């Protein structure tokens, strides 16, 4: 045992990176956790393997020659909703936002800890395998904002919102805990299920959520920033 194994059931993971060293290190850490791993060195090879084997999750580098990771993610999303974890360069926030917009489930910034990446993969797979709430779970609502939990559908003033899985989970958590301030670490643990990790993923998801539910994302009314703490959901209903 290496101490790198994620605490979850195993699955099939496709690791895509043009750096052979990165591919090898990530493969060894994931295999140590019981995952079956395939590797690809570019976007074209990734898409071929994806169609052939349909892995349970894809770890996908953004910056690759030829077909880059964002385009690969877009093409995969046309036919599948399998989880995607992006590998992005430190400081490339626009790549992370673009990836989340395309439907990526999470991202890890380079340089990264292989052990943390393995735990992230396990966490994303675990949440993807969780049974969805039955329709009887009802809905959460705040004014014109409604979350239908069973259908995992969100609407604002009757118009459906294109929320990613994480955005839906984050909004559901906020609606279920109105008026309470949570730190980014709190949200990372309660929504993502991680006790450690890059807290900027929370910041990016909050930013994306505001773009979809706020009339003016620059002056949010629902998802408020609590300076020195984190974020709080303020209901708009009277």
Describe the overall structure.
With 238 residues, the protein is α/β, with parallel strands linked by helices. 39% of the residues lie in helices and 21% in strands. It has a five-stranded parallel sheet with strand order 2-1-3-4-5, with helices on both faces. Strand 4 (84-89), helix 4 and strand 5 form a beta-alpha-beta unit. The longest helix is centred in the middle third of the chain and has 16 residues, at 114-129. It is globular. The termini are far apart. Mean pLDDT is 86; it is low at 1-9.
Biggest sheet: strand arrangement: 2-1-3-4-5
Q: Can you write the helix and strand succession as a string? A: EHEHEHEHEHEEEEHEHHEE
Low-confidence stretches: 1-9
Instruction: Indicate the mean pLDDT.
Output: 86
How far is it from the N-terminal to the C-terminal residue, by CA? 56 Å
Shape: globular
Query: Given the structure, what is the number of helices?
Result: 8
Q: Assess the beta-strand content as a share of residues.
A: 15-25%
Record field, number of beta strands? 12
Helix content: 25-40%
What's the oligomerization state? single chain
Structural class: alpha/beta
Radius of gyration: 18 Å
Q: Could you give a short account of the major beta sheet? A: 5 strands, parallel
List strands and helices in order, with pairings.
Elements: E1 12-16, H1 20-32, E2 36-40, H2 43-53, E3 57-61, H3 69-77, E4 84-89, H4 93-102, E5 106-110, H5 114-129, E6 139-142, E7 145-148, E8 153-156, E9 159-160, H6 165-176, E10 181-183, H7 184-192, H8 200-213, E11 223-226, E12 230-233
Parallel strand pairs: 1-2, 1-3, 3-4, 4-5
Antiparallel strand pairs: 6-7, 7-8, 8-9, 10-12, 11-12
